[in-house]
Design a protein that fits this description.
about 325 residues; seven-stranded mixed sheet; alpha/beta; single chain; 2 domains; globular; Rossmann fold; 9 helices
Length: about 325
């Protein structure tokens, strides 16, 4: 009897939580739509890209920046690809998918991804392709081609806390009009590095601190430049870099960051480091890089691309 009552109580709690989430998501969506429409009136007077930092369903204020870029490029219904979305409760494309009923593809290795995503959005409201897969530099182009997202992309977002650099490197030039790429600000403004190209990379397994993952901003800016993209700014959290295809750069009115002076875009105060037992230990500043100095990374500052310890670069 006690087990039955506990099961019933758990079910009731689940239903209540689900209803509250649906209610608050709807309110957040409506407020976000209203804010975006109001702020658009000042788009011609925006100085820095992160002045547009505003969160609806994104993790760290990307929604406002994305709307500005889409608006400046006159893109109403973006065709998008987002890699690394979790259950889609927080992502860079959810707000725009729900607002414009556009066409897109989301990819994540989360188990039962379609079921998890369907708990947060109404799949019938737009044309959303859901792919459950570990993405790497060998399979990304095949997945894009197979699903019809290998050309005419308006927005491409990549956030997998791992081999992001190597996935980008495997893509062709001009693969999207706008690209959003997560970078590791712990690596600082000067290092041109990435973690090695390891399939199914896991940041916790690579180093218990969770601090050694992804690529430095400098490495990504240089790579994206080779694919005809211009670096246009970052969000306030200093975790996502925004790029626009150079053919569309004239549409962007904000002051462009200096690609050789990236200190302002790597001054993150985020303290997400863990101790050996998996607990937050709030290490900050240069101590974060010191903690992972013995980790191996690829030095991308020259054509040799050697694997070295961070302390030896």
């Amino acid at each position: 009897m006690k087990k039955l009552l506990k099961k019933i109580n758990n079910k009731i709690i689940y239903i209540i939580n689900h209803l509250f989430k649906k209610y608050f998501d709807k309110k957040i969506f409506m407020i976000g739509c209203s804010h975006i429409l109001n702020i658009r009136q000042s788009y011609n007077n925006i100085n820095k890209l992160n002045d547009l930092d505003y969160k609806v369903f994104s993790q760290n204020g990307e929604d406002g920046i994305i709307d500005y870029l889409l608006s400046r490029l006159n893109i109403v219904k973006p065709k998008f690809v987002e890699i690394g979305v979790g259950d889609y409760s927080e992502s860079n494309t959810r707000f725009f998918f729900e607002r414009t009923s556009c066409k897109g593809m989301i990819i994540d290795c989360l188990q039962n991804l379609k079921v998890q995503v369907s708990k947060n959005i109404k799949l019938w409201k737009g044309d959303l392709t859901i792919v459950e897969s570990f993405i790497n530099s060998q399979n990304i182009r095949e997945i894009l081609n197979k699903n019809g997202f290998d050309n005419n992309l308006d927005l491409f977002s990549l956030d997998i806390d791992g081999i992001d650099y190597w996935i980008l490197k495997s893509l062709p030039e001009n693969f999207s009009k706008i690209a959003i790429v997560e970078y590791n600000s712990v690596f600082g403004p000067s290092l041109e590095i990435s973690v090695p190209n390891i399939k199914e990379f896991n940041r916790t397994a690579y180093h218990y601190s969770n601090l050694c993952w992804g690529a430095s901003l400098k490495a990504l800016v240089k790579l994206m430049q080779s694919k005809n993209f211009i670096f246009v700014g970052t969000n306030y959290m200093r975790c996502n870099a925004f790029f626009v295809l150079k053919n569309y750069l004239d549409n962007i009115r904000t002051v462009l960051p200096e690609k050789h002076n990236l200190e302002l875009h790597t001054d993150s105060n985020v303290r997400e480091s863990r101790d050996k037992y998996g607990k937050l230990n709030y290490i900050s500043g240069k101590d974060r890089l010191k903690l992972i100095e013995n980790c191996e990374v690829v030095n991308l500052s020259n054509s040799e691309s050697k694997i070295l310890k961070i302390k030896d670069i």
